């Protein structure tokens, strides 16, 4: 396994409903380093879709990478309106 770290000096402030503006630049700094390796998919600690027409951080990452990689989002809870895109996984 390869561990890649990156640091940013400045990030956007958190704005409710615009979480991606804070997190997207952080993910992209790491992902640009990952592009030199063969990547089949990316797993994010975030939602990809929030529901009908509502993007999650994963969709912003997907678009920022020109839709080149499969993005798998892992979240603690699902949004009520995204049942089409969600697969529940439980651990015991």
Structure in words:
The protein is of the alpha+beta class and 92 residues long. Helix content is 26%, strand content 14%. The protein is built from 2 helices and 4 strands. The protein has helices spanning 19-34, 57-64, and strands at 41-44, 49-51, 54-55, 70-73. It has a two-stranded parallel sheet. It has a two-stranded antiparallel ribbon with strand order 2-3. A hairpin with a 2-residue loop joins strand 2 and strand 3 (54-55). The longest helix is centred in the first third of the chain and has 16 residues, at 19-34. The protein is globular, with a radius of gyration of 14 Å. The protein starts with 18 loop residues before the first helix and ends in a 19-residue tail after the last strand. The mean pLDDT is 79.
Describe the strand arrangement of the main beta sheet, using strand numbers: 1-4
| Number of helical elements | 2
**What general form does the structure show?**
globular
Radius of gyration of CA atoms, rounded to a whole number: 14 Å
Can you summarize the main beta sheet? 2 strands, parallel
Distance between the termini: 26 Å
Could you spell the SSE succession in H and E letters? HEEEHE
Query: Segments where pLDDT lies below 50 for 5+ residues?
Result: none
Number of strands: 4
Fraction in beta strands: 5-15%
Helical residue percent? 25-40%
Mean pLDDT: 79
Secondary-structure-derived class:
alpha+beta
